[in-house]
Amino acid sequence: MSEKTTSRPAADSGTIDLGGELTVNRLGFGAMRLTGDGIWGPPKDPATAIAVLRRAVELGINFIDTADSYGPNVSEELIAEALAPYPKNLAIATKGGWNRPGANQWTHDASPAHLREAVEGSLKRLRLGRIDLYQLHVPDPMVPFDASMETLANMQSEGKIRLVGLSNVTVEHIERARKVVPIVSVQNRYSFADREWDNVVDYCEANGIAFIPWFPLGAGRVAGKLLQRIAQARQVKPIQIALAWLLKRSPVMLPIPGTSSIAHLEENIQAASLQLSEKEYLELTGITELAS
Fold first, then answer.
1. What distances in angstroms separate CA 23 from CA 20, 27, 61, 114, one per listed residue?
2. Catalytic annotation on 70?
3. I need a labelling partner for 81 at 20 to 30 A (CA). Which of 32, 124, 180, 272 fits?
4. How many CB atoms lie within 10 A of CB 281?
5. Whether 110 contacts 139, CB under 8 Å
6. Which one of 3.20.20.100, 3.90.550.10, 3.40.630.190, 3.30.565.10 gives the CATH number of domain 3-219+251-258?
7. Quick one: residue 41, left, alpha or beta (phi over 0 = left, psi -120 to 50 = alpha)?
8. Per DSSP, what are the bridge partners of residue 135?
9. Neighbour-count burial of 55, counting CB atoms closer than 10 A to its CB (0-12 exposed, 13-18 middle, 19+ buried)
């Protein structure tokens, strides 16, 4: 067995280039779940949260996604505590554009002033001189979209952001943003069981933009007779089949399953080497007439 397979299995997922500048493995880690209940406050067990982050890197994950609103601030602070100074090949992505007045509460603010403050705050908390990938967390209906994007473009020119991405957007948003600044990634809700944004995945693939599905396992809701049958035949877990489906869905797919458990992290990573057959993929995708 190769060292890659035995000690850094996330590398088995293959790689993706972000903007032609960063190459990362196609199975990353989302750090939202490392915070407290309601994505609010610190975790009940900070030591375990730090251990999960360190184990993720040991397993070959070199793309970690977070946001200033997770905690707020807590997720970014944990990442820095666990991993700074960062390995050279580790890319940290974060997001801004929300305020957090309380647990499970999210309010828009993608104004230029707020975004500039958010970028500066993330730089300090993450202990970085430049953020590898900074994503607009969500368009603000009260702020001109172009104004939000121009702010991120300006901060990129200032050297505080390396690459720019979007989250929770339509194809129209992506096209508008690309007229202001190069867009290397889009992060929308997407999973085996939730394909509302299929058209955005297809647009990203056609334009060489990474698609980062959030909620890639639907918070564990990946039940279904077909998924269970294929998982049982493979002697793996349904969540691993669901992740393998995402990886096969598009070469620009960059899933970021998150967890606060080392055991669950290791289960998720096993999906990196799980290759679905074309028949299995077509069945799961719902193209049964071609799979028979």
1. 8, 12, 12, 30
2. yes
3. 272
4. 17
5. yes
6. 3.20.20.100
7. left
8. 95, 165
9. middle
Residues contacting residue 3 through CB under 8 Å, at least 6 positions apart: none
Output the CA–CA distances (angstroms, integers) from residue 75 to 28, 95, 180, 239, 283, in the order listed: 15, 12, 29, 24, 38
Give the separation between CA 51 and CA 249, rounded to whole angstroms. 31
pLDDT per position as a tens digit, 60-72? 999 999 999 999 9
CA-CA distance, 88 to 111, in Å (whole number)? Answer: 32
Is-above-0.85 flag for pTM? yes
**Going edge to edge, which strands form the sheet with 185-189?**
29-30, 63-65, 91-96, 131-136, 161-167, 185-189, 210-214
Average of per-residue pLDDT across 184-196: 93
111-161 pLDDT per residue, tens = 999 999 999 999 999 999 999 999 999 999 999 999 999 999 999 999 999
Neighbouring C-beta atoms of residue 80, cutoff 10 Å: 18
- Report the run of H or E that residue 68 belongs to, with start and end: none
Coarse DSSP helix, strand, coil percentages of the chain, rounded to the nearest 5 percent: 45, 15, 35
Of these residues, 70, 86, 190, 203, which one is catalytic?
70
Q: What is the CA radius of gyration of the chain?
A: 18
CB 140 within 8 A of CB 148: yes
